Amino acid sequence: MDLLELKSKTPLVFNYANYVTPQFVANVVNVVGGSPIMAREIDEFNDLVAISDAVVVNTGTWRRSELPETIKLIQIANQAKKVVVLDPVAVGIPSRSVPVKAVMTDSQVNVIRGNAAEIAWFAGIDFTSHGIDATGNGDVQKIASLAAQKTGAIIALSGQTDVISDGHTTQMIAVDVPLLATNVGTGDALSALVGMFNSDEVTVENTARAMAMMKLAGVRASQTVKTPGYFANQVLDELYLIKQDELEEFIRSEVQNG
Ligand SMILES: Nc1ncnc2c1ncn2[C@@H]1O[C@H](COP(=O)(O)OP(=O)(O)O)[C@@H](O)[C@H]1O
Ligand SMILES: Cc1ncsc1CCOP(=O)(O)O
Ligand SMILES: [Mg+2]
Description:
By secondary structure, the chain is of the alpha/beta class. 52% of the residues lie in helices and 18% in strands. A 9-stranded mixed β-sheet has the order 2-1-3-4-5-8-9-10-11, with helices on both faces.
């Protein structure tokens, strides 16, 4: 959906969040025009999925004992035909790969949003990482496209260049905003935006809208703020201020077809 529709519908985003960044994620959802709710109690899943428009699963601080309930949550969302976004934080670390494989086998994820190293893991391509961060270089277009083909999910690869791919169509936003990478939680919040914009229909275009929204907020914030602390707050303000026509103009000028 576009930004105008989003603001009128106020999509409810159920975040199975990590315990590092939920406050930032919830605020990002709110200022853009959605409504966040965080939960991880299995007895609440049926009720919460029923009223939600998107389910965003972040594995950043996951415990292995939570694997069965996470799969159950995604299966409930699948049955209810709610979009599911997976944010596979640092999935390339071997002990983290095992449960993510199980999630991918036993439930259906519609969109995977991660940095280049995380997405490279799904593509089966080596990419250097340092904990939660992607630090290497590689052909991000090929990585996103291959990951989409292998998983059947739309891929939202973020970084200096964002790449969105369903394995056939690929779009890119090559806009450098280094301060965006300094704020822990920008990626998690971006995953929630991806869920919101795809809540009526899961498409490459809607996913690109979410990625463009964060980039544009970062571009604007870095015009007035030069240091990371204030930058995070400025990003929230810019996300709040962006208008439908400004977002669509940014998409027209910056989104390239691959
Ligand atoms: N070097 C960079 N230049 C511009 N934007 C970046 C850069 N690194 C990350 N971003 C932006 O920061 C946001 C979060 O992406 P990223 O840092 O890759 O996620 P994560 O926090 O999950 O590792 C995205 O909007 C992405 O476009
Ligand atoms: C630091 C940290 N540790 C586990 S999850 C997490 C936050 C990751 O946030 P992001 O992927 O948005 O940088
Ligand atoms: Mg991340």
